[in-house]
Amino acid sequence: MGVVRQLIQIAATEALLWRTIAEDRVKDSLIMALPLIMDDDPKPIIAVSVEDSLSPSTGDGLFRTDVSMTLQLQMAVAKSVSVAVEDENGGPGSMSMLEIGTTDAALEASLNLMDRQWRLALSDPANEWSQILLGLIGGFGRISDVRMVDPESGRKHAARIIEVTLDPIAEPSLGQDVPEVIATGLAKMTATDDYADLARIFSASLAGGASLAKWEEVQAMLGVTKPVPALIGVGTPDDGIEVLISDVSLNIAGEIEVPGA
């Protein structure tokens, strides 16, 4: 699910930017980058990632139509703290890390507000990125919302992990036409400086197989050997080459009626 997964992750991230009280502190899986843009005042943050994916069927090639995947949103109220460490020469140094404190009523209100805001953002008809996301999936499935708790002390943190099950469209296989929603998403990525190079790489990967015969496209999609497409009636594995037949035997049972005879 390479290009589909990538577009889902980017579309979800971009759809949430400036749509919640996290403002621009919405990151595409890069939770480690957040300390660098935070200060010592606690602020809402969201980290977006696509986690597990599963296709339960067997024998259907590598480009499945029954895949489910999990979109994960890590929401927290955190601040950046400086931690003393040794540098590469063994001397004193420091690094920035996120610190998520114990929750209280005010922080709970912030998390609850973000919980409503992300749902609004990802379903907003006026949000171009959310519409790309919705075009890439067949719908939202199971949603789980889990509190982050210190396993040793039992202390409740001001953070929640939300996981949403998605039913994505199939990844285009070799030689297949690129679905309009994927083309639209890649075009929007190309127009965004942070994603332009990545969009060109994925676009090039989708351009392969343009010269394949139809039966070869089916062969690639199903992940089978050359004779199989002919066996299922897609076509003959001759790739347009004339095949000479030296001997034909035709057996017809019953009589043949010729009109007007």
From TrEMBL:
State what protein this is by name.
Answer: Uncharacterized protein
Organism for this UniProt entry: Agrobacterium vitis (Rhizobium vitis)
Instruction: Give the domain of life.
Output: Bacteria
Question: Which lineage is the organism of this entry classified under, starting from the top rank?
Answer: Bacteria, Pseudomonadati, Pseudomonadota, Alphaproteobacteria, Hyphomicrobiales
